[in-house]
Amino acid sequence: MRINNQNIKVLSASVKGVLHTQKNEPCQDYSQYVQDGRNFVAVVSDGAGSAKYGRIGAKTICETLTSLLKDIEFNDAKKAVIQAIGIARSKLIRHRLNKTKSTASLIDFSATIVGVIYHKNKGLFFHIGDGAGLAFFDEKYQKFTASRPENGHFKCETFFYTMDDWKDSLRFTTFENAHTLFLMTDGVTNFSFSKDFQSIEKSFLQPIGDFLTKEACKTKALRALSNTLKTPLASKLNSDDKTLLWAKL
Asked: CATH number of the domain that 31 lies in?
């Protein structure tokens, strides 16, 4: 049975960080969502700046996950996510830029994953690395479930789906009856959370959610979201690429 996911209002914006702008390099972030299957699926990914083909890694995982997860049985979602990530890795092993055609070269495509599958008021975040996912349950944005960033022992160290031990870093978080979702790369997390990532910055996320909910013109809403991510203050606070995906369920 098909579920009408077309009623879900979705916007996603990616902006290039200051460092990539100065070096005339492309944005390494990527995002994608699908509404034409039995599930609503959305994924954002941050290609590692240190990786030669990080954007390709980010694009590949977003396209693969949204394509393969949109029609799966929700009860099998965790297993399906693991299988889909494995398929994305296989694509990169065979990629024309992978000269060795081995897992050893996957480091050149390093990227994080923050994604969600949503079906009939039930949702599942799946997550490797930094970035974050948020599901809100009340109109005042006080009650929420978060899939928080995960970093390594060092501030700039995180985890990627291209690592050999990627399954050890894959996290799942369930939720039900949310009204709004946010997915974001790590360029946006310091605007969205307190420093310990235990509470959210309502002064950032709630105005965005309220404005996008009320704005009927998608072009105007998308322009406003992009402008918010590339203000001088935003660039000063975080020089990384920034992606924010919003969904009104």
From this structure: 3.60.40.10
